[in-house]
Amino acid sequence: MSLGGYLIYIALLLIIPMWAQSKVKSTYKKYSKKATSSSMTGAEVARKILNDNGLFDVQVGETKGMLSDHYDPRKKIVRLSSGNYHGQSMASSAIAAHEVGHAIQDAEEYAFLRFRSSLVPVASLGNKMSFFLIFAGIIFQMGNLLLLGIIFMSAAVLFQLVTLPVEFDASNRAMGQLVATGVINNNEERETKKVLNAAALTYVAAALVAVAELVRFILMYTASSD
């Protein structure tokens, strides 16, 4: 790869995640100002959907930070950032329902969620070790080290790819639950879905970047082996 091509490649790796994050923030900002017809807070939305699905043991809590919302499967708690916990907007409802979608996946032992959970230790090790091994292999021209680094990176990339169906499924569940429970009406579906789609972009962008990096190092390894 020429220097110009390499610089373009690096720029794309930086631009894609930045664009995805910008899209999420702008969409969230827009729809955090639009209240739903039900005027329920994110916390109320989460509690209602959980109760309607019989998940009375799952708690709803508030957490600090912007868009720090997540579901903790170990403690069985949906944590919503302050803005979404108290907010009555389409964005708050969408994000709360999405996180509850993960709680429903957990209760139903959704296959991709279980698979992703099993990958966590390997993916964590892969993230920590892969670049060290790859760059050591490149610097010292040791093909075996480079290959080992690629194997470690593959585990981390697999985790990113498995995350995609988990997140998309949670969003699909969220839309269904929001309509079924009457949190939003039919006229609000399109706008609420925009929030969920924007959030999904961050996972797609992360997966694209991870795959591109893995392919680049694989090509580098095959070239050095010729």
TrEMBL record:
It comes from the Bacteria. The keyword Lipid metabolism does not apply. Pfam families: Zn_peptidase_2 (PF04298). Keywords: Membrane, Transmembrane, Transmembrane helix. The chain crosses the membrane at residues 6-24, 200-223. This is Zinc metallopeptidase. The lineage of its organism: Bacteria, Bacillati, Bacillota, Bacilli, Bacillales.
